[in-house]
Design brief:
Largest sheet: 6 strands, antiparallel
Order of helices and strands: EHEEEEEHEEH
Shape: globular
Strand content: 25-35%
Oligomer: single chain
Number of helices: 3
Helix content: 10-25%
Length: about 140
């Protein structure tokens, strides 16, 4: 008998992931970006001697097909880690859970300021959209706002 599964997988652009990492206050860093993988690092809790060891999460990614991304490196990152390098005590998921629970949005295509919120399946972004529009004086072209 095989296990059944039907779930939604969260995908973010690399620029969004970079903003999420920047908002972590140094807890995470972007380790490496390759053609099909994005690696993000963090430190696990110190051992009894006070030493810290790095744990690297390896996330799959795929190239963007959006016209605004032509000529730049901005792959789509699947926020479901394939493996955790350096995770000796099987705590990798917990170490990166906080990073995967936030979302970053930017006002406009060329906006430099990011707003980072805790991710609740889109509910928190929708709840804060009025706040974002007021802060950046942005109207939504898809509605008549």
């Amino acid at each position: 008998m095989s296990t059944q599964q039907d779930s939604a997988v969260r995908v973010v652009a690399l620029v969004n992931l970079e903003a999420m990492i920047a908002a972590s206050g140094g807890q995470y860093w972007l380790e490496k970006v390759s053609r099909s993988r994005v690696s993000v690092g963090t430190y696990r809790q110190s051992d009894e001697y006070g030493g810290r060891e790095a744990v690297i999460a390896v996330f799959p990614c795929y190239p963007s097909d959006y016209m605004t991304d032509k000529g730049i490196v901005n792959p789509r990152v699947v926020l479901s880690a394939m493996r955790y390098v350096g995770d000796v005590d099987d705590q990798g998921y917990g170490l990166f859970h906080a990073l995967c629970e936030v979302t970053a949005v930017r006002a406009g295509l060329e906006g430099a300021d990011w707003s980072v919120f805790r991710f609740d399946s889109g509910a928190s972004v929708l709840a804060h959209m009025d706040e974002i529009k007021r802060a950046y004086n942005v109207s939504n072209p898809l509605t008549s706002d």
